[in-house]
Write a structure and sequence with these properties.
heteropentamer, A mainly alpha (220), B mainly alpha (333), C alpha+beta (211), D alpha/beta (442), E mainly alpha (191), B: 333 residues, mainly alpha, Ammonium transporter fold, 13 helices, 56% helix, E: 191 residues, 9 helices
Chain lengths: 220, 333, 211, 442, 191
């Protein structure tokens, strides 16, 4: 590929401009399911980071040996291996968190973000660039997870990483740690970004497109 | 050549019937007796809760809505309706938050009046139910003096309510968890525990009848709901008499308020007449299912919200048969 | 920059190699992790049994096979496929009660719990929720509300759930949690149903009858 | 055949006919100039036969039919052709007209019969005579009558419906015609029945014209099977398909003509005109027009020479009040607004309605609240709510898929819309846009 | 029997895969613009779920007892290959059916809902019939969520949306509302 991206760009791209969760809406399943506390978000983010990094390195290293026809299967095989490892390690080292994340660790396998980076980047670039890209994307994912996790834990439990923020009298918004809260938090993030983009790129005038020539007066 | 005296507008040049504004404000007006009844049964607290919810809805509409959209009255209706389906002892900040949520995420995000999918008042209530399950299921008993507060209405924002009010189980709660029925007469007059506005079945029916006669609401929806609920619960009682009977089902909980004022919101109910029947039957069936087999004692709010979600689909599925065409749109003969 | 148009044998060997490598890696990690996971699982179970039977000196694992309790699992059946109960003993090797697990659908999903049962007195002597997804702050009081959990220490079976404060002082009454009636009832139902199934077995188990 | 009385949906606007319903038809004097557009009928415009300076007499053919679906135009007054030129047309465009300066003090005398006597003519000759007389439907659409009189041989027409519904508010043209000239209505019916070879006719009259119903019933000829059918008052009963549905219970298939269900519909005014041309021997040179509305000082039913300018007609009725805002050709539901008082009254002008500020006050538009009133109003069972939202985002193809073509722009949906959304206007624009697209493709 | 029914209902509405467990979000966001497409996607999903459930049961019962740590890899590989084979079979046997459903099959294969189904089924120790009930319930639930979302989106397309809601934010808010509405089913058929 003769793209003109610099190493620096490869690193920072995934963090914000092409944030996998907030921009591309990839990997939503873990981003919504396990972000009810900061600790869970962190664990999930790190596990995903580990899998992404491992598979990117491996795929990039062995890209010459993987025939085009079976590349997806090979990628999935590699990813699944790392996920299984992550699963086992978490279960052995931090069983409490492993229990909280439940099946969602295994589901990292089908996180489109990871497969997407292999297909779009690692399989075409040198190992060093692949590592940078994986770092950027992984951090971007982690940031998104932590944003979700902090908002949801803060409002849903009144705590951050388990430490009380609002004091004892706080009435937690339980919805935030329930499923609707996940959708809601991400939805609000996306709305905020839509609002921000509208501000910076000049909001399209919010005019209803009445057909040309229809004389109307909107309710004042 | 053309004469400046004359306007050039498209036909038709006559205008008949109600206006959206009049419909909305009539609905609001018909809620006044219900609010009064709420104040009679639950005292000052009821008014505080209703006022807080209305303030939340109206302020949100004012700040984020299209300029001047307050005038159509729909935000006020949302606020009052939300207030009517909350318990009287609820902290005012929660009611306010519910109103703001309902209007913000239930209506303005879709583009304002007429374009929302879910009933904003009920969405606000569903939010409160999911966020503050304890506060919203703490039912103060009806009666007592007007000035006596029924709970911690003045809890500081974000802070827990200190609960020392006299609470009582709702008729539905009694039925669900203790298999005790409440006399239908009490339900009809409203002297039972429950949300501030849903206890007075009589007044709600009168308001609904007024609106139906004025054709400001589609009578098919409440009728379909009542008939479905009565029929299903009748069948269930016939099979096993421990199930609650039709009269109890009809007059307990939020069914009256929901069927008359929430399910009939034209924006979030089907536009076709056949759709209205389907919608009503669906709400009725879901109410019975949730009340009888669900984990919650009350299901009207969820039943209506679920059917709201179905409305776009129902609308598509019940397009009218065009004149001179068979049902599938083909030209007849 | 992957290879295109590779011959079939290349495809197969690549996948086989990748599969082999993956298998190898996983096995290595598994060998390392397995004992730790098992140890943790055992520790959790032991702690739970410890909790519901008020710290027995030691306990036996019994297997329910063909409607009888046996001390050893039958040949050829995996241990995890069998239904197990645990019998605890005090320092002087006197049985103090059984720890029984059970699960049923609660408000959100299945509630899994373990409870201690003393066949001698017919009382439940402890209860601990192992797994639940009940509503935080409401339904999850079944595990977090110490008052509720404490009610299961010394209550006559079959249990009867009553509204808080509405009880008549009957020894089989359990005060349910206000606002989380479904979850509370499920806990009670699980215990009652399990005892209905296993009660006769437990009541007639030789080790306890001997006492 | 079942005679029923009703169609589903529709609206009930206040009929406002009290202004003129009891005012006898008067004759308006000849104006100083008449303006005769070559396009006064549906179909191809007529071919002009005269040139500037030509002398014409009342009843002279000044333009000939150009093809089968076309009709000739006759001079409505004796005078001199002042020009063949472009002139404001009631449809809002500029159209070719023949302008005739009326000879002052001309007796405008009856001339030797231009239309042959009816007795003894074969159906084909009657059709020919009707075409030559320039008779078109006077109900508004101005479809050439002779076309309706000659159905294709395979069509099995068994019933003639005379449309006396006149469902548009304010208008009383047909009402007065039926009440004052019942014989003409019956005679015209006889001519049509004979031409079409049908032996049954139904005259459908809305119940708000009891005098017309009584007079018509009293004068039915003994030898004809004519039924006078009172209809409940509802708009748009006068629409062909609605009337057929209301009277026979049959639905005309979408895109097809009434003759597919064995029916021909003719407007009562046109029927009377057929009778009139055979009676007087003069072609169609004048018509009955209701000039009414709160903006007219002296609301009247007038016999007006075709081509009279709006200004002259209004002056004859005492002029306009001060708060006039709109002048319409046709009724208030479907009528076309006029801004130029020089437009001529043409054959298809059923009435002139002048509205004042009170009736035309503009209402603010609110968003659609999905109340479903438009669905209840639409006589052809469309979903105006859906069509309207599609129109607002310009999705004309999807409107077509939702059967926009079946919309007859009756305006019932706009009339009932509580949010004042200009539905029918958007539909006519949508139709125009689709037509444009279709011609572009073709 | 009632157990199977509970499993089905629970997977369908109480713990709806999409709205309560966040599984299958990719099609929920991606293939929910048109009702017709959503219906076909939903049907294809039910189909694949049933295959998955059967596969997982076979693997769990006969193969993985001896090597549980290979569960993830074998699930992924076997399910993907099976779906591929089914896809080719359908293509051969019924081109019409393939046109209707086939194009969705590859999309579904690498979908969290499918793998999630297999894993949940394993974790909960479901037998063959229970697994099938679970698969059908989950599939119906996914289809329901998908169709609801699609019909709502088709309506909001015609709306005068505020600028900030023109991206997927609105879809997520709708999903949150649906999720809240589905909370009404909590505790259904329990006790």
């Amino acid at each position: 590929m003769k793209s003109a991206t610099t190493a620096q760009y490869d690193l920072i791209r995934g963090i914000w401009r092409e944030n996998p969760v907030l921009i591309h809406l990839l990997g939503l399943c873990p981003a919504l399911a396990v972000t009810n506390t900061v600790a869970n978000s962190l664990a999930m983010g790190l596990a995903t980071f580990f899998v992404l990094m491992g598979s990117s390195l491996l795929v990039s290293t062995f890209k010459r040996f993987i025939p085009h026809e079976v590349r997806i299967s090979a990628y999935i095989l590699i990813i699944a291996t790392f996920v299984t490892i992550a699963d086992l390690v978490l279960a052995a080292v931090v069983p409490e968190i492993h229990k909280a994340l439940g099946a969602f660790i295994a589901l990292i396998v089908v996180n489109c973000m990871i497969l997407g980076r292999q297909e779009a980047f690692a399989s075409k670039r040198p190992v060093s660039r692949a590592a940078l890209d994986a770092t950027g994307t992984g951090i971007g994912f982690l940031i998104a997870m932590l944003m979700m996790g902090s908002v949801r834990e803060l409002l849903g439990n009144g705590t951050l990483l388990g430490y009380s923020v609002f004091g004892a009298g706080f009435e937690p918004w339980i919805i935030m740690i329930l499923p609707p809260g996940g959708f809601l938090t991400l939805g609000v993030f996306l709305l905020a970004m839509g609002w921000w983009r509208g501000r910076t790129e000049g909001a399209q005038a919010r005019v209803r497109r009445w057909p040309h020539g229809v004389a109307t007066r909107r309710a004042a | 050549m053309s004469d400046p005296r004359f306007e050039l507008t498209a036909s038709p040049h006559l205008k008949g019937g109600a206006t959206t504004r009049r419909i909305m404000w009539s609905v609001t007006g018909s809620l006044v007796p219900i609010v009064a009844a709420a104040a009679y049964f639950f005292g000052l607290s009821a008014l505080l809760v209703i006022a807080a919810a209305t303030a939340g809805a109206v302020l949100t509409e004012r700040v984020f809505g299209t300029p001047g959209s307050l005038g159509d009255g729909s935000a006020a209706i949302t606020g009052v309706l939300l207030g009517l389906c909350l318990p009287a002892g609820m902290p005012m900040w929660m009611a306010f938050l519910g109103g703001a949520f309902g209007i913000g995420f239930g209506k303005l995000i879709f583009g304002g009046l007429g374009q929302n999918v879910f009933n904003p008042a009920l969405l606000g209530r569903a939010f409160l139910q999911a966020a503050f399950p304890t506060a919203i299921t703490t039912w103060p008993a009806a009666g007592g003096s007007f000035t006596q507060l029924r709970g911690d209405n003045f809890a500081l924002p974000l802070m827990r309510a200190s609960s020392d009010a006299v609470t009582e189980a709702t008729p539905l709660g009694l039925m669900k968890f203790e298999a005790t029925s409440t006399p239908v007469g009490d339900l009809f007059m409203g002297s039972t525990a429950g949300s501030v506005g849903e206890t007075a079945a009589l007044l709600i029916l009168l308001g609904g009848a007024y609106l139906a006669i004025k054709r400001y609401l589609d009578w098919r929806i409440p009728v379909a709901i009542f008939v479905t609920v009565a029929a299903l619960s009748g069948i269930l009682t016939a099979i096993d008499s421990t199930y609650p009977g039709p009269l109890f089902m009809l007059f307990s909980g939020g069914l009256m308020l929901g069927a008359v004022y929430m399910a009939t919101d034209p924006v979030t109910s089907p536009v076709t007449r056949r759709g209205a029947w389907i919608f009503g039957v669906g709400v009725g069936a879901l109410v019975v299912v949730i009340r009888v087999w669900g984990g919650l004692p009350e299901g009207v709010m969820y039943a209506i919200l679920l059917m709201n979600a179905m409305v776009p689909f129902i609308n598509q599925a019940t397009q009218p048969r065009v004149f001179g065409r068979s049902g599938d749109g083909m030209v007849t003969a | 920059m992957t290879i295109r148009g590779a011959p079939a044998w290349r495809l197969v060997t690549t996948l086989a190699a990748a599969g082999g490598m993956a298998g190898l890696l996983i096995v290595v990690v598994f060998e390392w992790a397995e004992p730790r996971i098992e140890a943790h699982r055992a520790a959790v179970l032991a702690a739970a049994i410890d909790n519901v039977l008020a710290s027995p000196a030691h306990y036996d694992t019994l297997y329910v096979v063909d409607g009888a309790l046996r001390e050893t699992p039958p040949e050829g059946v995996l241990e995890r496929d069998l239904e197990r109960v645990f019998l605890g003993y005090d320092e002087s090797d006197v049985p103090v009660g059984f720890a029984v697990t059970g699960g049923e659908p609660g408000y959100q999903d299945i509630i899994q719990l373990i409870f201690g049962y003393d066949p001698g007195s017919g009382e439940v002597v402890g209860m601990e929720v192992l797994e639940s997804k009940e509503t935080p702050g409401l339904g999850d009081k079944i595990e977090k509300d110490a008052e509720f959990v404490a009610e299961f220490d010394g209550v006559q079976t079959p249990l009867v759930g009553v509204k808080q404060g509405a009880g008549q002082g009957d020894p089989s009454e359990v005060d349910m949690i206000t606002g989380a009636t479904i979850s509370s009832r499920t806990v009670i139902a699980i215990i009652n149903n399990r005892l209905e199934e296993l009660g006769p077995l437990l009541d007639t188990y030789p080790a306890t009858v001997k006492r | 055949m079942i005679l029923r009385s009703g169609f589903r949906h529709g609206v009930h606007p206040a009929d406002s006919k009290h202004l003129t319903e009891n005012v006898p038809i008067r004759r308006m004097g000849f104006p100083t100039e008449v303006v005769l557009p070559l396009r006064q009928h549906a179909g191809k415009p007529a071919r002009v036969l005269v040139a500037r300076g030509d002398k014409v007499e009342r009843g002279d053919k000044i333009a000939a039919a150009d093809g089968f679906i076309s009709a000739p135009v006759h001079a409505s007054a004796t005078g001199t052709v002042a020009g063949v030129e472009l002139w404001p047309h009631p449809d809002g465009s500029m159209a070719e007209v023949v302008r005739v300066t009326v000879e002052r003090y001309s007796p405008q005398i009856p001339r030797p019969r231009l239309v042959p006597r009816w007795e003894g003519l074969s159906p084909e000759e009657v059709v020919k005579a009707v075409q030559e007389a320039g008779v078109v439907g006077l109900g508004g659409a101005a479809f050439p009558t002779h076309v309706k009189l000659s159905p294709p041989p395979d069509a099995d027409v068994e019933l003639l419906i005379v449309n006396g519904a006149e469902c548009e508010p304010y208008l009383t043209t047909d009402h007065r015609t039926m009440a004052e000239y019942p014989e003409r209505v019956h005679f015209g019916t006889r001519v049509m029945m004979q031409c079409l070879g049908v032996d049954r006719a139904v005259i459908g009259v809305e119940k708000n014209k009891p005098d017309a119903i009584d007079v018509l019933t009293a004068t039915i000829p003994d030898d004809l099977d004519i039924t006078i059918l009172p209809l409940t008052v509802k708009y748009p009963q006068g629409a062909e398909k609605m009337l057929i549905k209301a009277i026979t219970g049959r639905e005309v298939p979408s895109g097809k003509l009434p003759m597919h269900v064995g029916v021909i519909v003719q407007n009562a005014g046109s029927i009377a005109t057929i009778a009139e041309v055979f009676e007087t021997g003069l072609p169609l040179v004048e018509r009955i027009v209701t000039v009414t509305g709160p903006g007219v000082k002296r609301p009247s039913n007038l016999v007006v020479p075709v081509g009279s300018k709006l200004r002259d007609v209004l002056d004859f009725c005492g002029g306009l009040t001060d708060d006039v805002t709109e002048v319409l050709f046709g009724g208030p539901m479907m009528g076309a607004p006029q801004t130029d008082l020089d437009v001529p009254i043409i054959k298809g002008t059923t009435g002139v309605v002048v509205l004042t500020r009170a009736e035309t006050e503009r209402h603010p538009v609110y968003p659609c609240i999905h109340c479903g009133r438009c669905l209840d109003a639409c006589p052809v069972f469309l979903n105006p709510q859906l069509l309207g939202s599609l129109a607002q985002v310009g999705r004309y193809e999807e409107m077509e898929a939702s059967h926009l073509a079946d919309c007859m722009v009756c305006g019932a949906c706009s009339y009932v819309c509580p949010s004042n959304i200009p539905l029918s206007q958007m539909f006519s624009l949508g139709k125009a846009a689709l037509q444009k697209m279709a011609t572009k493709v073709a | 029997m009632s157990d199977l029914f509970w499993i089905l209902i629970s997977a369908m509405v109480v713990n709806n895969f999409t709205l309560a467990l966040f599984l299958g979000l990719c099609p929920f966001m991606g293939v929910s613009a048109r009702v017709a497409t959503a219906l076909r996607m939903g049907a294809a999903n039910i189909f694949v779920m049933v295959i998955t459930s059967l596969t997982a049961w076979v693997l769990n019962t006969f193969v993985l007892t001896y090597a549980p740590y290979l569960r993830l890899i074998s699930f992924i590989v076997v399910i993907a290959s099976l779906v591929q084979i089914v896809e080719m079979t359908i293509k051969k046997l019924s081109p019409t059916l393939f046109r209707e459903l086939g194009i969705f099959l590859p999309l579904i294969t690498t979908n969290c809902a499918i793998l999630g189904l297999a894993i949940f089924q394993t974790n909960r120790g479901y037998g063959l019939l229970e697994g099938l009930a679970f698969a059908v319930g989950a599939g119906l639930g996914l289809a329901l969520a998908l169709v609801l979302m699609a019909s709502i989106r088709q309506q909001t397309e015609l709306s005068d949306l505020p600028g900030l809601a023109r991206n997927m934010g609105l879809v997520l808010i709708v999903a949150a509302s649906l999720s809240m509405a589905f909370m009404g089913f909590a505790g259904l058929l329990s006790s």
